[in-house]
Amino acid sequence: MPPLEATLKPNDRLFFHVSGRGDSGIALGGIMSVKGAGAIPLFQKKEYLTNHEWKACSELDARGLMTITRQILPES
Asked: The pTM is what?
């Protein structure tokens, strides 16, 4: 995602949100060895955004978005 450039004057406030398409999938998180059962794969749910884009929004929209957000960590 390219950096966001913005110019602010004294007492100005700008609000932005990141827009993108959400994807999720299953990834192999590890393998556990269980006596008598052999190796058992440990799967984990993975969620991420694709096609990130900064979009301007109003303060009211920003406040609303803060109430419904959930953290999505960047891919490593």
From this structure: 0.43
Residue-wise pLDDT tens digits, 27-57: 888 888 888 888 888 888 887 767 778 888 8
- Give the 3-state DSSP-derived string for the chain, with helices as H, strands as E and coil as C: CCCCCCCCCCCCCCEEEEEEEEEEEEEEEEEEEECCCEEEEEEEEEEEEEEEEEEEECHHHHHHHHHHCCCCCCCC
The strand pairing partners of 70, in sequence order, are: none
Per-residue pLDDT band for 15 (boundaries 50, 70, 90) equals confident
Short-list 41, 10, 18, CA closest to 28: 41
Query: How many whole angstroms separate alpha carbon 25 and alpha carbon 55?
Result: 26
